[in-house]
Amino acid sequence: MYEAELSEALFPARTEEAIWETTVGALLRDVADRTPGAPALVEVGFSGEAGRRWTYGELLAESDTLARALASRYRPGERICVWAPNLPEWVMMEYAAALAGLVLVTANPAFQAGELRYVLEQSGAVALFLVESYRGNPMLEIAARAADGLDEVREVVDLTDRAALLRVDGAAAALPEVAPGDAAQIQYSSGTTGFPKGAVLGHRGLVNNARFYAGRCGTTSASVWINPMPMFHTAGCGMVTLGCLQAGCAMVLIGMFDPAAVLHRIEAERATHILGVPTMVLGLLEAQAQDGCDVSSLRLVSSGGAVVAPELVRRTVAELDCAFSILYGQTECSPVITQHHEDDAFDDIAETIGQPLQQTDVSIRRVADNGIAGLGEVGEICARGPCTMIGYHANPEATAETIDAEGWLHTGDLGTMDARGYVRITGRVKEMIIRGGENHFPAEIENALLEHPEVAEVAVIGLPDEKWGEIIACFLRPEAGCRPDEAELRRHCRERLSPQKTPVVWRRVEGFPLTGSGKIQKFRLREDYLAGKHDEAF
């Protein structure tokens, strides 16, 4: 915990840890040179069984070979798209593109033709790397439709076709000089509120953000990270992959998230760390209650990307006997903004999203006038520092709307800050519910409901209403085998919240519409409800 006595909701960046002026590729070379024989990467296939393994020396050798092949076919600064599930080849493409000075564009393997075409066209990608199919998605067929007529796409390459992947066009090319400020990736936002934008992330931001994150998780060269997070997201290819790289530890890459299989892999690999969105953590707890694997090696569970309920923290600590660290971030910040320390008090872990990361200014700003909020006052969470994105690709208007003249990145999330710099998140600026002129914050209501033993997941949204402007609606997935009573849920809310915060619309759901990174798409819930698709009450 950093010592602080703030007088307003502005936490100046802590600078005890320096910014490393390096690149993703240079960092791989440094680690492989120091510890070539250290375990680096373990493949876990879609069946849940372990497969190929690489040391850091072997990982560098394969990535370097691939980089030289790519450099013979593409010019530095060109953009290449990887559209695939979690495979070791994905990791090698990340390192090879960095070594070759190419910009890696990431795409969700669940995309259909229109979504993929948007990413290819908007990013100006010159090549697409994929697999034949994934979870019933015929990716080669979809790619043919998506790339039809896109003259800039010069190649479509199967990642599992080693000859095509490593093809050298003419003479082998020398690798270019790559600078820390150069673009490394274009990551498309998750789309929780609408159409995605491509955040351009630099080497400097990705490398340092991952180092600060992994360090606060207590990662060392002896750590073993289980990585079930999708590689197309900054959590998978940034926080965990690059965090493990800097610690020089092993990363166990999960091809497809299955809670029971992941628990068995934790047991088999004696894993120490895992990062997962709350739905993943909940799945692990439910599977552990049935399977009872030996997870005694587990030191820390890290979670974020959505509201982490206090009850989930309590259950994880009690049932897995490990520490818990919540992080808060955005793709546009490479991505972590705040995070807990290992020695934080339990109440701080359960009730806040931690203190700002090193080298990151964080402020809470009033929505009305952009002034710095008072301590405990709700406003927009803003961040500034070297991990902030370069900008949105080919979208200067959106960049200017997100990063103000003083360099503050406006997250669109609402929160508060206390005198120690600990931040609480209360919802989204666009999700804030205004009922009868009074502001209500979904996260507060969701956390209260998640304290109920029969509630597994919940999403609270505002619905249009002639009298109140908006009314509060709750969409709820019960725990397995449970059918909670609406009257009981109302009583539960009234015991914990003021009456006007109690939802008036209640709907039971079997699951939620999710982004590729596991966030609930609340705008979809609202649209579907208004279209008459959620008519099952309790």
What does this structure look like?
This protein has 538 residues and is an alpha/beta fold. 32% of the residues lie in helices and 24% in strands. The chain has 16 helices and 26 strands. The strands form five sheets. It has a nine-stranded mixed sheet, with helices on both faces. Helix 1 runs antiparallel to helix 2 (56-73), helix 9 crosses helix 10 (278-291) and helix 10 runs parallel beside helix 11 (310-320).
List keywords for this structure.
single chain; 538 residues; alpha/beta; nine-stranded mixed β-sheet; 16 helices; 32% helix; 24% strand; globular
Number of helices: 16
Mean pLDDT, to the nearest integer, reads: 93
* Strand runs, count: 26
Across the major sheet, the strand order is 3-2-11-10-12-13-14-15-16
Biggest pleated sheet: 9 strands, mixed
| Morphology | globular
Strand content: 15-25%
Structural class: alpha/beta
Range of helix content: 25-40%
The end-to-end span amounts to: 44 Å
Radius of gyration: 23 Å
- Which segments are poorly predicted (pLDDT under 50) over 5 or more consecutive residues? none
Question: Summarize this, please?
Answer:
The chain has 538 residues and is α/β, with parallel strands linked by helices.
List the helices and strands and how they pair.
Elements: E1 10-11, H1 24-34, E2 39-44, E3 50-55, H2 56-73, E4 79-83, H3 88-99, E5 103-107, H4 113-123, E6 127-130, H5 139-147, E7 155-158, H6 162-165, E8 183-188, E9 198-202, H7 203-216, E10 224-227, H8 234-247, E11 250-254, H9 259-269, E12 273-275, H10 278-291, E13 300-303, H11 310-320, E14 323-329, E15 336-339, H12 346-351, E16 355-356, E17 361-365, E18 379-384, E19 391-392, H13 396-402, E20 409-417, E21 423-428, E22 433-435, E23 438-440, H14 442-449, E24 455-465, E25 469-478, H15 486-496, E26 505-508, H16 522-530
Parallel strand pairs: 2-11, 4-5, 4-6, 5-8, 6-7, 10-11, 10-12, 12-13, 13-14, 25-26
Antiparallel strand pairs: 1-17, 2-3, 8-9, 9-19, 14-15, 15-16, 17-18, 18-20, 20-21, 22-23, 24-25
Helix pairs in contact: 1-2, 1-3, 2-3, 4-5, 7-8, 9-10, 10-11
